[in-house]
Amino acid sequence: ANVVLLLRRTRPTVSDNPGMAQNDLSTTFTGSVFIATSLDGFIARTDGDIDWLMDNDDPGDTGYINFMSEIDLLVMGRGTYEKAITFDSWPYSGRPVLLLSKSITTLGDDRVELHNSMDTLVKAIEQSNAHRVYVDGGKVIQTFLKAGLIQELTITQLPILLGNGIPLFGPIGRDIRLTHVSTKVLSAGFVQTTYTVDASRFS
């Protein structure tokens, strides 16, 4: 979804432990979210369509280019991957991309490394020596939040109500306290808020 905003401008086991908090993990990377949602919290329509992201006036500089300049590696889910391959060109050239999916068993795409479990995915991230990881896609973001592997969230809300669709957030098993960093009002009614996860205040 965030690629669309850009195009408008030009070692504990984690897989089955939703109660594990961030300060229980010893990881070498920072998990970062940078995503756009409708005002009612959806990242896509129920069929995965993001036409509503395109049908807006230009919001101006969303900070996506600067964000991506600091990213070493990307993690995405099946839905995000299937949307990305419909673009005219691959939007993540020059960076390793890891795909987390239990439903895909083989993948004939050498731009992407497939992982079927969080355990192997996290090991691959740490072995890559990546410092900042872009985590994208609703289910993947929820999975990383459950595992305590998200430290930063930047959410850009668009002035539209979809009523239903694919939500950004879902059940996470506990409260996750956030610290507000900044809120920016962009052009065209876009509002962008950045938070950090307060690991000391997990409930």
Description:
The protein has 6 helices and 10 strands. The strands form 2 sheets. The protein has an 8-stranded mixed beta sheet with strand order 5-4-3-6-1-7-10-9. A two-stranded antiparallel sheet has the order 2-8. The model is unreliable at 6-25 (pLDDT under 50). It is α/β, with parallel strands linked by helices and 203 residues long. The longest helix is centred in the middle third of the chain and has 10 residues, at 118-127. The chain is globular and about 40 Å long. It has helices at residues 2-9, 51-54, 64-69, 78-84, 118-127, 138-146, and strands spanning 30-38, 42-44, 73-77, 97-100, 112-115, 132-136, 152-158, 166-167, 178-185, 191-197. Strand 3, helix 4 (78-84) and strand 4 form a beta-alpha-beta unit.
